[in-house]
Design brief:
Length: 171
């Protein structure tokens, strides 16, 4: 009896869980700005749930705040967007040529501090989906307590639009 292992460069759109290697194949973010560690649930074009393990080793804790480390709320909103981006980009075949960018943040609320040792569970639901844009409602929890929420809108753009030549960079 032999075992056959099949591997691909990109995770299947049918997957409902993603490990860190899968996430890194989908999202362009890397340490220290990759803010999700695992996807534990995913329904294509509808809903996704991700986990962020918050540790004292996070670089932002050095200055936010010394002797009272609190995860910046703006990074929790970024984690919501990255979670939604993982859902959106699983549906994009040419994702290596595309970049997902924020186009809006609405109704952001921060209810409780997130501190080292917490496990952030990020739940994102799609409210509107178009081929190149999405509106998502995200909620972040520690245990059963909601710590933050926001509605984010994002758009897919061609990566070549973000590259500037030397003449354009000057001004």
């Amino acid at each position: 009896m032999t075992d056959t292992v099949h591997t691909t460069d990109a995770p299947s759109a049918a997957k409902t869980m993603l490990d860190i290697a899968d996430i890194q194949r989908i999202l362009p973010h890397r340490y220290p700005f990759l803010l999700i560690d695992r996807v534990i649930e995913m329904t294509p074009k509808e809903r996704i749930v991700a986990i962020k393990n918050v540790t004292i080793n996070e670089p932002f804790f050095q200055g936010h705040f010394p002797n009272m480390p609190i995860m910046p709320g703006v990074l929790i909103v970024e984690a919501i967007a990255q979670t939604g981006g993982a859902l959106l980009l699983t549906e994009v075949e040419n994702r290596d040529e595309m970049l997902m960018v924020f186009t809006g943040i609405e109704r952001a609320k921060f209810r409780r501090p997130v501190v080292p040792g917490d496990q952030l569970r990020i739940e994102v639901e799609v409210k509107a989906w178009r081929m190149t844009a999405v509106r998502m409602e995200g909620k972040a929890f520690v245990g059963d307590k909601r710590v933050a929420e926001a509605t984010v809108t994002c758009q897919l753009i061609d990566r070549s639009r973000t590259r500037r030549g030397p003449a354009e960079a000057e001004g």
